[in-house]
Automatic annotation (TrEMBL):
<dbReference type="InterPro" id="IPR036152">
    <property type="entry name" value="Asp/glu_Ase-like_sf"/>
</dbReference>
<keyword id="KW-0378">Hydrolase</keyword>
<dbReference type="Pfam" id="PF00710">
    <property type="entry name" value="Asparaginase"/>
</dbReference>
<dbReference type="InterPro" id="IPR006034">
    <property type="entry name" value="Asparaginase/glutaminase-like"/>
</dbReference>
<dbReference type="InterPro" id="IPR027474">
    <property type="entry name" value="L-asparaginase_N"/>
</dbReference>
<feature type="domain" description="L-asparaginase N-terminal">
    <location>
        <begin position="15"/>
        <end position="163"/>
    </location>
</feature>
<dbReference type="GO" id="GO:0004067">
    <property type="term" value="F:asparaginase activity"/>
</dbReference>
<protein>
    <submittedName>
        <fullName>L-asparaginase</fullName>
        <ecNumber>3.5.1.1</ecNumber>
    </submittedName>
</protein>
<dbReference type="InterPro" id="IPR037152">
    <property type="entry name" value="L-asparaginase_N_sf"/>
</dbReference>
């Protein structure tokens, strides 16, 4: 991305953004009447918003969250642990986001925030842009730990679930 990374600025005060796929990055193929996970959109969103805080995007995988398994969660955890930044934002599909947050909850002195969207960021009417902006800010403000941001709320990892009937997240 065009923004300086934390390494380039000489400090580790930037935000590492780890993308895993999910609805937030989905593309609709009209001719086939189907969705597929595409390239990460978060960098474009942050550039359009003129975000000045240093950030860098690490594309880890392009999966629907229903396809993310324990081996993938281990990869996500390892990416978090090996990042030089102490503040990490993860984009993730919503169906298993709470499970991943719980699986990577022990982050030591790192602040990790997971977010996603209920409709693709490429859609005009989507929660993606709001979620990205709010999660980016939350990553800068929250204390060390693993958090999830959805539906205008911050949840602690392990204390949240997706309510499939209402299609929103709620505290346990």
């Amino acid at each position: 991305m065009n923004q300086p990374t934390a390494q380039e600025s000489g400090a580790h005060d930037g935000i590492r953004i780890i993308t895993t796929g999910g609805t937030i990055d989905k593309i609709y193929f009209d001719a086939r009447s189907q969705f597929e996970v595409g390239d990460p959109v978060i960098g474009h969103v942050l550039e359009e918003a003129l975000v000045k805080h240093p950030w860098t995007v690490q594309e880890l995988m392009q999966k629907d969250s229903l396809e993310i398994d324990d081996a993938d969660r281990l990869r996500i955890r390892e990416a978090v642990q090996s990042a030089p930044e102490k503040r990490i934002l993860i984009t993730h599909g919503t169906d298993t986001m709470a499970k991943t947050a719980e699986a990577i909850a022990e982050t030591g002195d790192r602040t990790v925030v997971l977010t996603g969207s209920l409709s693709p960021a490429r859609f005009r009417s989507s929660d993606a842009i709001f979620n990205i902006g709010a999660a980016f800010a939350a990553t800068q403000c929250l204390p060390a730990g693993t958090w999830l941001f959805m539906n205008g709320q911050v949840f602690k990892a392990g204390d949240v679930k997706k309510n499939l009937d209402s299609n929103c997240f709620e505290a346990l």
